[in-house]
Write a structure and sequence with these properties.
The protein folds into 4 domains: 213 residues, NAD(P)-binding Rossmann-like Domain (Rossmann fold), CATH 3.40.50; 165 residues, 3-Layer(aba) Sandwich (Rossmann fold); 77 residues, Dna Ligase, domain 1; 113 residues, ATP-grasp fold, B domain (D-amino Acid Aminotransferase, Chain A, domain 1). The chain contains 24 helices and 29 strands. The strands form 6 sheets. A 7-stranded mixed β-sheet has the order 9-8-11-10-12-13-14, with helices on both faces. Strands 19, 24, 25, 26, 27, 28 and 29 form a 7-stranded antiparallel β-sheet that branches. Strand 1, helix 2 and strand 2 form a beta-alpha-beta unit.
Amino acid sequence: MSIDSSEKLKNIHRIFYPQSIAVLGANKVKGTVPADILVNILKAEYKGVVYPVNPREKHIASIKTYKYVVDIEDPVDIAVIVYPSSVMHMALEQCGQKGIKGAIIISAGFKEVGGLGIEREEQIKQIASNYGMSFIGPNCLGVINTDPSVMLDASFARKMPEEGNIAFISQSGALCTAVLDYAQAKHIGFSKFVSIGNKADISEIDLLYYLKDDPKTKVILLYLEEISDGPGLMKAAQTVIEETGKPVLAIKSGRTSAGASAAASHTGSLAGSDEICDAAFKQAGIIRCDDIEEMFNKAIAFTYQPLPKSNRIAIITNAGGPGVLTTDAAIRYGLELPKFSQTTTDILKKSLPKTANINNPVDVIGDARADRYSVAASSILKDENVDGVFIILTPQSMTEIESIATEISHLASQFDKPIYTSFMGEADVAAGIDILQRNKIPHYILPESMPIAFSSVYQFKNMLEDKQQPVKIFGDVDKEKAQSILNEALKNGKNYLPEEEAASVLQAYNFPLLKSGLAKSSEEAVKLSEMLGYPVVMKIMSDDIVHKFDVGGVILDIKSKVEAQESFNKIIESVKKFKPDAKINGVFVRQMIPPGEEVILGMKRDSTFGAVIMFGLGGIFVEIYRDVSFRVAPLDNNSVDNLLTETKASAILSGARGRTPRDIKSIKECIIRLSQLAVDCPQIKELDINPLIVLENGKGSFVADTKIML
C-alpha cells in the first residue's frame, strides 16, 4: 500500500514520540553500535518501553530480549534496526507484520556502496511501502528528541544534547557527532536532531513539513550533500517560513566542481549547479551558510534574541581596534550606526570618563568595570534611535568579566531589543562566555561575526513582511504553436534550433521582435532588406554554428542595396573559411534595432531545480563580466525585482552616472514571459536572448539574437 503525506507525518511523529521501541540487533558488546544505541536509549531516561531483539540473547542490560520482533506481545511504535544490510529486508518485513509504522535504519551497505547495495535499498523501500511504514536512513546516526515528555536518544552519539529550540537535520552522520560536541561546548540545545543518511524514504522535505508544526522548534538547520527534489525543497521551506516565520538555514556541500563540460549557450556556461542552488535558496527564503560556525552564529541569533525592528545598531567596546573592525563590518553588511538621542548622550557624558568616546561606537575605555558597561548598555538600549546592541570586551587586569556577563544577561531580559556579545580571547574570558551562553545571549569569537548574523536576521525579518505575489500568466501567448515548432525540431533530430525557428518560438510568446526573414542568395538578401527597410542586420543560419561572431557570421548596420549584396557574400565566404564543413541554411535578415543597453536573458533546465532563469549584462563579453543572477521558474514580481537588483546592470539601466534611464518595465515583462515559456515547454534545455537591447524609458526593448538548445 502506498502512503499519503498525512500518514507519513503521523509516522514521523511516532518516530519522534514513540511509546515503545524495539531495538533489532541489540547486543551486549560494549563499544559497538548495536550496544551503544540501546545504552543511549536507557541512559537518556526514555519515558517509554524498550524491547531488545536478538535471536542469540535472552537478556541485555537486565532487560528481557526477544528472538524476533513478532514475538513481542505488546504493540510496538517504532523499530531501531542495526542488522547487516544483507538481512535488513527480513527484519523490515517482520516489522511490517508486527504493525510497526516507523523505523530508524542505522545500518550501512545500501545505495552509498553501489551495486548490490542499490538493490537492497530499493527492496526495503518496497517493503516499507507495502506495509504503510516510514523510515529514516539507512546509513544514519539515528534520531534524538530532547522533549522532556519522551527523552529519546535513538542514536549512537556520545552524549544527549541539551534541550533547545533548534532542529538539526543532516545527511552526514559523522558531521552530526562533531556538531553535537560543538553545541555542547557552547550550551546550544536542540529540539530534534536527525541523521537522515541515504534518505531513502523520509527526506529533509518530509521533516520540514513535520517541524513546521512542532511547537518545540523555532529554527531549522539543514546539512545537505545532495538535493533530489529541488522544487519540493523550495516549496517546503517557503511553506515553513510563510506559515510560521521559522527560519531555515542550510549548508549545501559540493560548492566547487572538479570540471565542467563545455556549454553551447552563455546561460549553460554561467549557470553552474552552485549558482543555481544559491538562487533557489534565496528565492525560497533559505539562508545558505558556508560552514558550521556561520550556521550556528546565525541560529543562536534567531533563537536567543528578538528580531530587530530596524538595522540601527550601537556598539559598546572597551578597546578601539575591535570597535573599528566591527563598525567596518556593520557598514559592509548594510547596518546603520545612528546618532544617540540627547538624553542618551547626556547620560554617557555624565557617567563615563572624559577620555571615553560617547558617540557610536562607544568606547568605555580599557579599565571599564561592570558598572561602566551597565550604564552604557542600559542607556543605549532605552534610546529609540537604536534597535540592537553589540557588546565587545577585551580582558584587562581590572576587567570584571563575570560581573559584566551577568549584567548583560540581566539587561537582555529587560529589553525587547537584541543584544550580541563578543568577549575576545579564550582562557581569561571563558567563565564570562559560559555565563552568557547559559543565559542564551549570543556570543561570537570574532566581533566582526556579530554584524553578519544581525544582518541575516534583519533581512529575514524584512522578507517575512514582504507579501508573496501571485505569478503573472500572460494570455496573449500561443503555447500550441511553440510546442509544435519544438516537437517538429526534436522529431527531425535537432538539438539546436536555427534562429529563424527560435524567433518563431519567441514570437509565439509575444516577445518584442522586429521584422525578419531568411535569404538564400544575395538577390534574396537585397530584396528582403529593401522590404524590411534599412538599416538591417545579417546573420549566418547554420545548425553547425552556435557562436556566429566567432566565424564572421554577423554584419550590423547595413544601410544600402550595395551593402546588402556585399554583406551576404562576405558572410558566406567568411563562414566557409572558418567552418568549411558547416551546412549553411541561408542568411537571416532583420531590421536593425536602435542603439541601447545590452542585457542577456537566459534559461537552463537544471536536473535538480528545473527551469532556471538568468538575467545580466549582455553582449559578447557576458562570460567575462559574469554580471548575472538567477531565479527558478515560475517567477513572481518579487523574484523578478530581485533578479534585476542583484546585478550591476541594474544601476546602469536605472541611469547611473548621468546615463539615460532604460525601459526596465519592458525587461521585467520579457523575464516573466521567458519564465512562462520555460514552464510551458520542457523541450527547451537552454535558451539565450543575447542581447536584449533596451531602449530609453517608455520605448521598450527588442530581441537582437536568440539561441535555443533542445
